[in-house]
Protein: SatD family protein
Amino acid sequence: MMKAVITGDIINSTAIPIEQRPQLLQALDNIVSDLKHLCSMKYEVFRGDSFQILVDQTEYALLVAVLVRAGLRMNTPKNSKLIWDARVAVGVGNVEFVADQIVASDGEAFQLSGRAFDELGKQNLVVKTESEPINEELKVSTMFADDIISNWTPAQSFVVFESLAFEKSQKEIAEAQEQSAQNISKISLLAKEKLIRQYINRYHQLITHYKR
Structure:
């Protein structure tokens, strides 16, 4: 059965103060919990700062990966010297065996995600599927998307998260935050939300068509 696997780890985790570690892991738990209305997924943390998410509906995997990064960035403590973020590799392929522990499971999706993660280099986001044409199409756009995401401020990350995860309008976000819709619109524009949305939608189209 085709599934998607997101393998990730916290960027510069050793530089995060020890007293913030529980807060960081709780934030990651909450982010994944908030995203479970989008699709069915299993999630597991291992080695303290690494995680894997098994996504049943492969067409939503990239959205989940982007929102995990946005969620971490928006939860960065105000007194933090660095913005919380994660390196993530999305692998899409067949999964032959799913164990109680995700890290003990096996299949092409796990292998693709693992290999892609090992080859991340200076990138913080990569997507690998069983289809080379899809990989080639997404390669450059993923680099651009990663550059945009890696420069989001916590405020920009919050607006993108609320918009993409819950389809909230700028007016709804503004009212909830007691800000002007104009200010939220400006934040969205600076975050290049429309470009990220188009990138995610194109992935969704490619994977949906590939699964047929």
Summary: The first strand starts at residue 2 and ends at 10. Residues 168 and 204 are 20 Å apart (CA to CA). The chain is about 50% helix and 20% strand. The first helix runs from residue 21 to 35.
